[in-house]
Amino acid sequence: MSVDDSDRRLLRQLQVDPAQPVAELARRATMTEATASRRLERLRARGILKGQQAVIDWRKLGWEVEVSLRVTLDKTNPRAFDEFIAAAREVPEAIEIQTFLGRVDVRLNVIARDMAHYQQVYRSRILTLPHIADLEALMHIAEIKRGEALPL
Question: CA 15: distance to chain centroid?
Fold first, then answer.
C-alpha cells in the first residue's frame, strides 16, 4: 500500500510521540487538524496504523534478567510447532515468541526477577514445553539499539 509524503510526515511525528494530541500532531506534520484526523482514520482503515500501545520498562518493575532461548523442535511430530507454540504462549515470563526457517525453529524471549527466578522458570515452565530437540540460552547483557520507528 502506498502512502504519500503527507502520510509519511504524519507517521514520523506519530512515532516521535504517539500520545500527542491530534492538533499538535497536525501542526508538526504541517497540515490542518481535520486533514490529520482524516488521514489517520484512513491509515487505520487500511491497516497501516494498527493502534497505539503502552511501552512499560519491565526492568524498572524489578525484572532484572532477560534471556533469549533458541529452540529447535523435534519435527518428527507434524503437530510439533502448533503444540509448542500453544504451550509457550502460556508461559507468562515469555514476552516474545518468534518462529524462523533454518536450524533454529523458535526464539523465546524470557524475563525473570533474578537468576533464582529464571532457574525456576527454566526448570518448571521451559523444559516442560513439548517437542524440544535442542535448546540454547543466550543471556542478554546490554541493549545497544532498540527502535520501533520506521525510516519514513
Answer: 16
Return the bridge partners of 66, or none: 111
Question: In this structure, are residues 106 and 87 in contact, taking their beta carbons and an 8 Å threshold?
Answer: no
* Residue carrying C-alpha cell 526477577: 113
Q: In what order do the strands lie in the sheet with 132-139?
A: 94-99, 106-112, 65-73, 132-139
CA distance 58 to 61: 5
Phi-psi region at 30: left, alpha or beta (left = phi > 0; alpha = psi -120 to 50): left
Predicted confidence (pLDDT) at residue 1 exceeds the cutoff of 80: no
pLDDT of 117-137, one tens digit each? 999 999 999 999 999 999 999
Please list the residues that pair with 67 across neighbouring strands: 110, 139
Closest to 107 in 3D by CA, of 128, 63, 137, 147: 137
> C-alpha grid cell for residue 137?
540460552
Rounded-to-integer distance, Cα 102 and Cα 36, Å: 43
